[in-house]
Inverse folding.
């Protein structure tokens, strides 16, 4: 068989067979193949190979269900999740509230801190008087765990502000705690 | 956060048709990053068949293997879609991921002594056997011829004739050069023609 003189066209046969050529190139290939037995034979092989490899069916719905959610939906949560575990956060808030209480900071001040922010946070943090035997004089309701991430973040931010201010209050001591709790 | 990136235009070295395909993919990626889940379905629908065909052509996999491989490919791709810069087409990138997964699986199978690895020649694949019953003789012979190629020749030949990918795209997928991809294709074509008894000029 005579060798093909137009390597450019020969090179386009796979694109031609898969419909990736524009109209002008496709017309050029068609015209060439009619006159060139070498390329006509090669095009037959390419077409047979194209048809030979069929795609097994795949379950599109199952694939889509396995995909991750778009990143923009989870990004807001990342900083808090990376920062602290929720259990630690709850303990930290509870401990800080207890410290504030025994250190003599008024409950009014604490409530105003909470009120400055989201009203739901105030509603859902239960501060209730406990019996006098408890040293802190306060217990924190379990509902801290029910706070939303955003509400928890607000509390944390406020606590960070408190941490940043050097305490003018006396450090809690056993005698101070007893005094605060009214225990002689 | 919107997550929407502007669609880059005029960067594709491909023909017009394929270039606009790339633009559509980039637009769909931007929509998915912005929170549109339906864009993911469209992206999967656009590329799943090509990935499935390539996996099956490489041989040695059952239908459910292929299904699982294609799913894993998409999951990997979507997990890092945010960092996809569009320097290659999405399709090329997906093939690259799929090929890497296939290589990993073959290596893992080789490490498992209790399971005999599927020999390259036998990898004539279950597909070949099943499809051959209804396929015409020429197609069946082409499949047998392709199964006798080296693994790299088979990859290059298949990507070229079934998807019409350019040598540059194929080189990106198999981690080679454009020139080497061209040589592998010509050697593969010559071998297939010889098997089929087609004169090679």
């Amino acid at each position: 068989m005579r060798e093909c003189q137009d390597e450019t066209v020969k090179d386009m046969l796979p694109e031609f067979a898969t419909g990736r050529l524009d109209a002008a190139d496709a017309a050029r290939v068609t015209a060439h193949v009619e006159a060139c037995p070498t390329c006509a034979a090669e095009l037959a092989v390419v077409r047979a190979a194209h048809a030979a490899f069929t795609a097994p069916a795949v379950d599109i719905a199952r694939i889509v269900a396995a995909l991750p959610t778009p990143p923009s939906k989870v990004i807001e949560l990342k900083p808090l999740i990376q920062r602290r575990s929720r259990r630690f956060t709850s303990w930290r808030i509870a401990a800080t509230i207890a410290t504030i209480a025994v250190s003599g900071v008024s409950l009014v001040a604490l409530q105003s801190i909470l009120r400055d922010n989201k009203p739901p946070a105030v509603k859902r943090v239960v501060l209730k008087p406990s019996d006098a035997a408890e040293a802190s004089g306060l217990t924190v309701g379990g509902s801290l765990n029910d706070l939303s991430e955003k509400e928890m973040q607000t509390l944390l931010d406020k606590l960070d502000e408190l941490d940043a201010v050097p305490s003018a209050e006396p450090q809690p001591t056993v005698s101070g705690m007893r005094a605060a709790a009214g225990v002689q | 956060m919107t997550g929407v990136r502007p669609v880059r235009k005029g960067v594709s070295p491909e023909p017009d048709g394929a270039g606009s395909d790339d633009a559509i993919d980039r637009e769909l990626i931007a929509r998915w990053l912005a929170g549109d889940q339906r864009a993911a379905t469209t992206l999967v629908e656009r590329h799943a068949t090509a990935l499935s065909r390539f996996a099956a052509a490489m041989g040695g996999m059952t239908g459910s293997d292929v299904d699982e491989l294609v799913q894993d490919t998409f999951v990997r791709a979507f997990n890092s879609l945010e960092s996809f810069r569009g320097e290659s087409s999405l399709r090329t990138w997906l093939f690259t991921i799929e090929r890497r997964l296939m290589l990993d699986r073959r290596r893992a199978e080789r490490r498992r002594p209790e399971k005999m690895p599927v020999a390259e020649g036998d990898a004539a694949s279950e597909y070949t056997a099943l499809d051959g019953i209804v396929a015409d003789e020429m197609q069946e012979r082409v499949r047998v011829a392709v199964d006798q190629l080296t693994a790299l020749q088979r990859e290059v030949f298949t990507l070229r004739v079934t998807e019409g990918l350019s040598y540059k795209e194929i080189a990106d997928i198999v981690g080679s050069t454009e020139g080497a991809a061209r040589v592998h294709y010509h050697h593969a074509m010559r071998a297939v023609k010889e098997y089929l008894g087609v004169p090679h000029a």
Summary: The beta strands of chain A are 127-129, 138-140. Chain A touches chain B at residues 1-4, 14-15, 17-22, 25, 38, 41-42, 44-46, 48-60, 62-64, 66-73, 75 (CB under 8 Å).
